[in-house]
Task: structure prediction
Amino acid sequence: MEFLRENISLLAPLIILQVVLFVIGIVDLLRRDPQQVRWGIKWVWVLILLINIIGPLIYFVFGRKE
Amino acid sequence: MTGARTFLKKEFREIGKTYKIYVIPIIFLVLGLTSPLIAKIAPDLVKSLAGSGSGVVIQLPLPTAVDAYLQLFKNFNQIGILVVLISSIGLVVEEKSRGTAVLILTKPVPRWAFIISKYIASAVLIVGSTLLSYFACLYYCGILFDETLFKPSFQGLILLLVYYLLVLAIALLASTIGSTSVVSGGLAIGGVLLLSLLPSLHQWFARYSPGALSGMETKLAAGSIVFSDAVPALIVTAVLAVLLVATAVVVFQRQEL
Result:
């Protein structure tokens, strides 16, 4: 853990990318009506978006309805 | 041929307009950056988990760039394959169920071009994202371990990329055969699981089947085998990928939409 605190400059890009990934998903989700989302419940998909790394992918592939 | 090129352009445009162009490269980039960091802090993690007050002295070897690539290839073979599958499972089946496939095919363009252009566009995205991830890992290895092991790790990466092309071919075929996304998804996951199980069934499979490549990637990076050891399995994998894409074309040509 000491190492990570000392090397925050290496960790920062990683954190930024994870945040970007989440934001891309949440922006798409918030713009939708509940009917345009699978199961019609938006908060469930907020939880799924939080799944590490592949959450946003799962949302984009399975969460959206035309 | 001009018709085929139009299809290919359409596929690239589609990737560029959808989530795929952002989400997939970022996921792979995260994998590439995480791996060397995890490898670096792993010994500290073990120590802190073992507890400092127990009086047990744990001697762990210092992590090297090899550990980073071990971690990278592990991630590529688990999360990476999942990403390839999830993102490509709808390729054909979604266009069939939405009815857009019928619309497109009323144009005077051969059906094979529809399938092949989907495969090529997805392959470019996946290979590009994986390369990006690999070079990110390489860069971090240079910083964290003062060595990049470029040659052996890149040879490992070649095996991985060819394996990804096969996984993509499986997803494409499953997407063409299946009548719904669920059926296609099941078929594709079944196919990939079978590939990964084969090497443990028989010695022959452990040397020549596509599933053997995942073990060889890390061994290559660690320097315990040479590239020529992996060539037979590599050829089998590439041939199988071509055969599966060809099968997808034949199936699609005979399908009623």
